[in-house]
Amino acid sequence: MNNKVLIAGAGAIGGFYGGLLAKAGADVSVVCRSDYDIVKQQGYRIESATLGSWQFMPSQVLRNAADYEGQADYLILCSKVTADIDRVALIRDAVAPHTAIALIQNGVEIEHELQQAFPDNLLISGLAFICCNRIAPGKISHLAYGKLILGNLSNSHELNTPHLRDLFLRAGIECVISEDIIASRWQKCVWNAPFNPLSVLSGGLATQAILQNQENFVRRVMQEVCNIAEACSHPLPTDIVESHITLTREMPPYKTSMLLDFERGHTMETEAILGNAVRAAQRQGVDCPCLQSLYVLMQLRELQIRSSGPLK
Amino acid sequence: MNNKVLIAGAGAIGGFYGGLLAKAGADVSVVCRSDYDIVKQQGYRIESATLGSWQFMPSQVLRNAADYEGQADYLILCSKVTADIDRVALIRDAVAPHTAIALIQNGVEIEHELQQAFPDNLLISGLAFICCNRIAPGKISHLAYGKLILGNLSNSHELNTPHLRDLFLRAGIECVISEDIIASRWQKCVWNAPFNPLSVLSGGLATQAILQNQENFVRRVMQEVCNIAEACSHPLPTDIVESHITLTREMPPYKTSMLLDFERGHTMETEAILGNAVRAAQRQGVDCPCLQSLYVLMQLRELQIRSSGPLK
Description:
The structure is a homodimer. The first copy, chain A, is of the alpha/beta class. Chain A has helices spanning 12-23, 36-42, 87-91, 112-117, 160-170, 181-201, 207-231, 240-250, 257-263, 270-284, 289-308, and strands at 4-8, 27-31, 44-48, 52-56, 61-62, 74-77, 100-104, 123-136, 139-152, 175-177.
């Protein structure tokens, strides 16, 4: 079988899922910049609340995709989606004609630049539902969840996507194939669009406090995202707002990924989550004033951060 | 003439305008809590960029309105309008039957609780357009502007309001009487509603940066405030948004009062400026999603501040 995997942008998410694929028997290499030295020397230490602890020693640990030896069957891109990361440049030198490119990334409408750059490769768009942090160089803590949703953008009946899913399943993580991965992205955005910016703009509130105090507003932002998805021909289940609210109410207080990035001084995925959604709305002529307000405020917040010091 | 004036809530604004009235020959006393000792001893030192510097020694310096000797012709309330200040309690013990109560305060729809508490007194509602700071105990720096707009809520033809205006004019400060002070309040709110919360929620941007980066959003919030004012039967001039934008473009970069309060850890006038406007919109059935987003975010920001430490 085709089991040569290259993970690009191997932080916590990439290291974790790469480590799972290695457990399942795949030949997994990583492009890993920030923790290169330690990972090269001793691999990743992964401590999972649900899957035990293990050492993940990649076959090749690389600073750049160009250094990859051999041809990848799967190139899995796990970087954040931010303006300071050129995702095409990050993977270009390791994309062979038969390489399937899989994204495990946040946001909506994030596939276009990869489709343009690699029109002849299979593109698998994927979403991770996971709590997973880098707690030290080369050390990853998996706290909870872990489900993956994968989907082909072309809806073609090829075998690469089911094969990748099977590898993840073999490693013990939930993984499903979505027939409409674009709708799945919008569905995740319904949750991300209110909670991510509200957590940052409030100065650090967790999900519970936001929901308990401003449930109506959260619902309105969620509904605006549903309206945009529908206008983009990806209507979401009619109970999606309700089920997201119920789910959030049942979750322990949770710090969003954007809040964690903010607290660490990292670039936030404002454009991938909010900017792309607002631009889709504008293209479709859908009014989304609350979502747009959050987007405006995040842009101003980021402007203020940039003007008071460099982002890491 | 009736020249006995008591200033309640005498911080920078109250000390400045009280000092002007004293210059004009009025008998001015103050209720002043935080700087009581130093003001009792040596009065206020006022340094104005446009009116020179002077010492303002109030006739009576009081901790409480109840200690006032004599009866005030004018009781001028200059406190902030926040939930932690009971404005009625602050002045009640010094309101005589003939006392005219004047407010020099921010916000919209802030008169109701005073009208209810003192139905038989003349209520003069006033707005100050001023840059003025307390730079040390008992020391006030007046940086720019200073115009006052005064208006009777009852539109009655009495002489107290023109007389108060004349005192201010005599002291050298611009002061006009508005025939529709409620509309004047909404007009000021058109500016305050976007710039105040955006400056705080962005983490500290001045007006210039906000306008240069998000002019369309600022205009939309301004227009929502105009729609509310109109629904409340106080239509604003049709060019009000344009003229506020032009004015702001011509101003030097400016830190809003809400941002200054935020930076000093003081309570912000969120309810007086945003909450009252949103509630008026709800009462009138006017949709104001951008304004409401700002209000929601300010409430969450304040919740986060309260949960991380006491407000000063």
